[in-house]
Amino acid sequence: MTTCAREVTAEGGGAAGHTGFVIAADGSYGARLVGGADDRGGWFPERWTLDGPEPYAVPLPGTGPDESGTQLLPLADGRVLVARRETGAHRLALLYPSGPATGELTLGTVGSEWLTLLPPTPAGDGAYALVAGPDRTQVWLVAGGGPHGPQQVAEVAGRCAGGVWLDREARLLALDRTAPGDARTKTVVVDLGSGAVSPLLQITDTSDDRLLLADPDSGLLLLRSDAPGEDRLGWGVLGSSLPVRFPETLCPDDVRLTPFALQPGSALLPETCGVALRVDGPNGTWAALWRPAQRSLRHVAAPQGWLAGSGVWTTDGELRLPYATAQTPCGLATAAVLPQDGPEPEYGAPAPGPAAAPSGPPRPVPLQEAPMARG
Questions:
Q1: Per-residue pLDDT tens for 340-361?
Q2: Which residues, 6+ apart, have CB-to-CB distance to 32 below 8 Å?
Q3: Residues of the chain with pLDDT > 70: what percent?
Q4: Hey, how many other C-beta atoms are within 10 angstroms of the C-beta on 230?
Q5: Which of 5, 214, 344, 355 qualifies as a FRET site for 140, CA 20 to 30 Å off?
């Protein structure tokens, strides 16, 4: 049997963005660290506006350079959350343009060096972080909690990583947990309203099961598990008893696939939901599009300078890929959308060429009873 190339993350970033470029959930803004903004050296935050006629970038250098490990998260109102690591703590603030200068609103500190910002919330008006210890993990509300500053909102037994939002109210948070005394990793759901923790992915008793992405509209889940006997990408549906599937399409030879964006707006139609994947292979790095209803990938050439592993779907169904070059320091290329019908494209790397242009949160249902299927 051919073993799939293992999924890897790109350089930089954390849970909120594996490339160092983080995009707000609604696609309005992006943020990243850039080097050498002036003669002081070091790293400085930069905010991208992505939902206007043309994308543009605004530097937010503040009063001094940042470290390369500084974490950023853009909010839907245009401010950028910054988490700066200090001795024994993380200091949090909101950055925003203020005339020719950078405004900074101090939020407070969290007394841990091991803080990781979670992905942007669907509404984009708040921000959360994980503080993971060897036996317990805390979830903190670090922005949007009012005048009291950062506050702990939940605690989970075990060491947690990852972080995927399951609903648009940012109440249900999926985390990949390694329980105390257990080497296996399973995905659990934390209800931030009640603090309750419940299982989500438990495909077999002995498998490592991790959730990568989820679409609140369709319920589509993208996951990674070694339940089939090797580490593979698979998909399922939130709250469904249908099989978790590990299609051969998502396990091609000699390349690594990393899903990074799900198409919104496919309410109750998970098999039609578009998935954008980063592809790393011997011919370089590019993007691919896929839907569960299709049996092959559609490969698209990434723009030169693509901030690899980042992108956003528009409400019109276009996948847009951010890129930066010396000639275009802030760009957004549009990739074509997968066709609903018609012949499926053959597998292969793209040829060189120009860039392509509720009443309450749902209750998650564990998938451990669903039989596995490869189709």
A1: 544 444 333 333 333 333 333 3
A2: 20, 21, 22, 45, 46, 48, 72, 307
A3: 83
A4: 14
A5: 214
pTM of the model: 0.86
> 């490990």: which residue's tokens?
69
Q: What is the mean pLDDT of the chain?
A: 85
For the chain, the straight-line distance linking the first and the last C-alpha, in angstroms and rounded, comes to: 16
Q: What value does the mean pLDDT take over residues 23-41?
A: 83
Residues in the chain: 375
Place of tokens 């803080």: 115
Amino acid in the structure at residue 140: W
Locus of tokens 């937010």: 60
Tell me: the pLDDT tens digits for 107-130? 999 999 999 999 999 999 999 999
Amino acid at 46: E
Instruction: Assess contact for 247 and 374: CB atoms under 8 A.
Output: yes
